[in-house]
Amino acid sequence: MSERCRHLRRLHASLTHEITVLQETLQEEEGIGSENPIEIRNILKSLQDTLQATNVELQKCPPPEENELPS
């Protein structure tokens, strides 16, 4: 379970970063009047759904040890 939890924590950190970047990109696209931010919205929704599922699985993990925290 420990390796799985480490993997889930890394995935969580990566997804969180990508969602933040996409949200910023979406705001920029909307700010300049882009005609097609729908693709970005769809990707963002998918990543948010995956992050939610990852959070559910992480609840089954013990708290991380100091050396397991994502950087």
Précis, in short:
This protein is mainly α. 72% of the residues lie in helices and 0% in strands.
List keywords for this structure.
single chain, 71 residues, mainly alpha, 2 helices, 0% strand, elongated
Please characterize this protein's 3D structure.
By secondary structure, the protein is mainly α. It has one domain. It contains two helices and no strands. The radius of gyration is 15 Å and the shape is elongated. The mean pLDDT is 87.
Order of helices and strands: HH
Total domain units:
1
Distance between the termini: 21 Å
Helix content: over 70%
What proportion of the residues form beta strands (DSSP E)? Answer: under 5%
The major pleated sheet works out as: none
Topology:
Blueprint: H1 2-31, H2 38-58
Helix pairs in contact: 1-2
